[in-house]
Amino acid sequence: MSKELPEIKTILFDLGGVLIDWNPRHLFRKMFKDVDEMEYFLKEVATSDWNEMQDAGRPFEEAIDILASKFPDYQKYIQAYYYRWPEMLNGSIRETVEILKKLKEELGYPVYALTNWSAQTFPHARDQFNFLGWFEGILVSGEENMKKPDPRIYELTLERFGLKGENTLFIDDSLRNIVAARKCGLRAVQFESPAKLRADLRLLKVI
């Protein structure tokens, strides 16, 4: 006889790629005439690993200086990664925001967010997306000098918001973040689409 899992009482959301359409291509399609060169820039110059260092607390000014010294021909694009950062936002993922609203307003779940995001750029998101005010709390990686999938950031989130991992469902689009969350005792589902999320929530008897 299988052991019944604990009831899910709290929902913990990632933001970028789940509720917010953030993608550097929204900006760089305007700047590069050649798509292949844009992809080279994002994969070999301003890489995900480079950007994640800002998510972990490194100042963008320092990051720009380091990268521009290595790739001087791309200096204006590297600088744009910070100074034109708001153009990387392409609005909310509307259907997921509707799910968030249903969970909070109709079903009464406490909702929190855990996001890998630079402390310097997150204020732009706060200004643009009113639904960020719906959360009981948001933990921003850049403000804590650590990022997912570091186990410490999950432990900090649970401690700061007074949550229990076995009663908390974490939703993130990154598989590595999901795996790390589960290792830290959270329940977790990978976000692939709003429709898939609705199905997962029904399966877990959340909605």
Structure description:
By secondary structure, the chain is of the alpha/beta class. It folds into two domains: 10-19 and 93-203, Rossmann fold (3-Layer(aba) Sandwich); 23-88. The chain has helices spanning 25-31, 35-45, 48-55, 60-70, 75-83, 94-106, 122-128, 141-144, 151-161, 175-183, 194-203, and strands at 10-13, 20-22, 89-92, 111-115, 137-140, 168-172, 187-190. β4, α7 (122-128) and β5 (137-140) form a beta-alpha-beta unit. α4 runs antiparallel to α5. The longest helix has 13 residues, at 94-106. The two termini are 25 Å apart. The model has no long low-confidence stretch (mean pLDDT 97).
Compact summary:
The chain is an alpha/beta fold and 207 residues long. It has eleven helices and seven strands.
- Any idea what the radius of gyration is? 18 Å
Order of helices and strands: EEHHHHHEHEHEHHEHEH
Q: What do we call the CATH homologous superfamily of the largest domain?
A: HAD superfamily/HAD-like
Main beta-sheet strand count, sense and barrel state: 5 strands, parallel
Structural class: alpha/beta
Query: What name does CATH use for the topology of the largest domain?
Result: Rossmann fold
**Count of helical stretches:** 11
Helix content: 40-55%
